[in-house]
Amino acid sequence: MVEKMNKNTKNLKKKPGNSVRGFIFFLILFLFGYAMFNSIFGGNVKTEDVALSDVVARANDENGNIKKITVSGNDLLITLKDKEAPTQHSRKDSSGTLYEQGLKNNCEGLSNGELKKCQEKYPTIEYEEPVDYSGIIFNIITLGVPILIIILFFSYMMRQAQSMNKENMGFGKAKAKLYGPDKKKVTFKDVAGNEAAKQDLEEIVDFLKNPKKYEVLGAKIPRGVLLAGDPGTGKTLMARAVAGEANVPFFSISGSEFAEMFVGVGASRVRDLFSKAKKNAPSIIFIDEIDAVAHKRDARGGAGREDEQTLNQILVEMDGFDNESGVIVMAATNRVDMLDKALLRPGRFDRHVDVALPERKDRLAILKVHFKNKPLDEDVDLDSLAAKTAGSSGADLANIANEAAITAAREGHKTISANDVTEAFERVAIGPKRQSKVMNDHEKKLTAYHEAGHAIVGHVLPDSDPVHKVTIIPRGHTGGVTWFLPPEDRSYKNIYELKDILARAMGGRIAEKIIFGKDDVTTGASSDLKNVASLAKEMIIEEGMGNETRNLVFPSEATGYYTISTGKPYSEKTAELIDKEIKALSDEAAKRAEIVLKANKDVLDRLANALLEKETLEEEELPALLKGTTLPEGAKLH
Ligand code: ADP
Ligand code: MG
Ligand code: ZN
């Protein structure tokens, strides 16, 4: 988003381009004029050619009728006695010696009176610097080009400085960008879904547009609005939409920009930012990624003093607002839990707008926004794409739309096909296909059984999502992928569902073990195991799902207080208990996967062979291949 916003300032930077063009135009004009001048007044006088020998003979003859000979390089211009300007022309020959010897100044060394007499008889000889056109061009290149570069450089620097805003030359001045009403506007129409958040923000727009309406009733206009939500959910986009809808100046700065500053600069930038906004009121100040400066002052064992000063200055400025200031401060963060509580107090960021990950219908709306100007084949089904992308943010979806267009272009398609969209989705979700990586037969077989293992465990266990697609085509860092498709978005998952997710994640490695014997440990399962470890940890620490620690949660390391002895927010004993519970969950998952796969070994073989043959199995092909599976008693949860 930041890049996108910067594009708006491009208009400013275009001007150096114009001045360059203007400069080049004048340069050409100047050269042309110079050439004209020279051809009229300079060397190229209309003359008649005469032989060099003739000139030399006449120069030494009293009756040679020559008044003056002008030597200009290899050219001799001869002015006759009865003429003012040269009318004859001769050219020095290649040796030049004949001319050197033959042509001499007959009047040289004579005194005044005699000189005059002599000059009446013999020609005077003058030397003139030749006009050398190739020399001029050479000079233009050797001198002109560096000068041109220097001029361009300076004009660029000047433009840069101007576009940075005069105020920005100083260190302590805010680098805030102003998006006035004339810049490309974002409105709520550009923000799909997120109706609840939009409604909250529409109220803010109304405050800015009709402050009187609220003042009359004695309502306090909110000072600070905090947009909180996962990365890519459109917080920055929404803040810009508020500015666009309210039609007021929008001063935006990112918290991370404060981080680049010298000591003491952050606070003065804040001061400057607020004073600018007040001058332009009604206006909006937007502090993006505010967590970068406003993290808890105690959480990291004393955040940098610099950040603390910046944060304090923000608080001071916000407290200093009176009710009529007409400035609304918006801020966005991915981490509300990390924010300093002082920021959230009344009179500061007292309005919270939660920007949630989009639900299925919102995802469809967002996809429609981003596919709007892209030509789609008729068989592209955005609705099913919306279904597949549970958990994706608006930014992810925008990314899929863009990747689909890129894929189509790369494949030389005129319109975007359903395959292009699928490829884009998988690329964004996992990474690009690795066509170049050739698996040998053993690796391929191992991968086929591994993926078949995931698929079967997921299919058999009662609380797992249905299998959507299985493939052994390598992609990103994985050898293959088994996709499970949640039938709908759910905000909550119960412990049974989570345990089935753990078991099906173990299914890959367990299938390898059953088929290839021993603990033929391969690296193919490492990401599965990482997923198991992090989900199990979350279940124990955050969800209270352990056997012995049921309904107990533990403070996480980022937010809790630390005990001195362990350096963790709990005692040594509790730490051991947590480790034990996590291990119990993953052992149980491995056990259940093993029971399922052993009981369904024939289906495992069938699925793996189908994968080896076809490499990718789509949703339609799977039911037939998975037919006849059974849920063994030992895999059930009691
Ligand atoms: P955040 O600030 O929350 O991290 P951004 O506002 O930067 O997210 O969103 C990044 C991009 O994702 C936007 O520029 C837009 O293209 C897309 N996007 C996110 N949410 C939406 C939405 N609700 N509607 C349309 N596009 C969205
Ligand atoms: Mg953002
Ligand atoms: Zn796996």
Gyration radius over CA: 41 Å
Ligand inventory reads: adenosine-5'-diphosphate, magnesium ion, zinc ion
Name the CATH homologous superfamily of the largest domain.
Answer: Peptidase M41
Main sheet summary? 6 strands, mixed
- What oligomeric state is this? single chain
Please report the number of helical segments.
23
CATH class of the largest domain: Mainly Alpha
Mean pLDDT: 79
Characterization of the model:
The protein has 638 residues and is an alpha/beta fold. It folds into 5 domains: 1-43 and 144-169, no CATH class; 48-131, Signal recognition particle alu RNA binding heterodimer, srp9/1 (2-Layer Sandwich), CATH 3.30.720; 177-354, Rossmann fold (3-Layer(aba) Sandwich), CATH 3.40.50; 360-429, Helicase, Ruva Protein, domain 3, CATH 1.10.8.60; 441-635, Peptidase M41 (Methane Monooxygenase Hydroxylase, Chain G, domain 1). Helix content is 50%, strand content 10%. The protein has helices spanning 2-7, 10-41, 52-59, 97-102, 112-121, 133-163, 195-209, 211-216, 235-246, 255-259, 265-279, 291-294, 305-320, 360-371, 382-388, 394-410, 418-429, 441-460, 495-516, 526-541, 572-599, 601-614, 622-625; strands at 48-49, 66-72, 75-80, 88-91, 124-128, 177-178, 224-229, 250-254, 283-288, 327-333, 351-355, 467-471, 481-484, 616-617. It has a 6-stranded mixed beta sheet, with helices on both faces. A 5-stranded mixed beta sheet has the order 1-4-3-2-5. Helix 14 (360-371) packs across helix 15 (382-388), helix 16 (394-410) crosses helix 17 and helix 18 (441-460) packs across helix 22. The two termini are 49 Å apart.
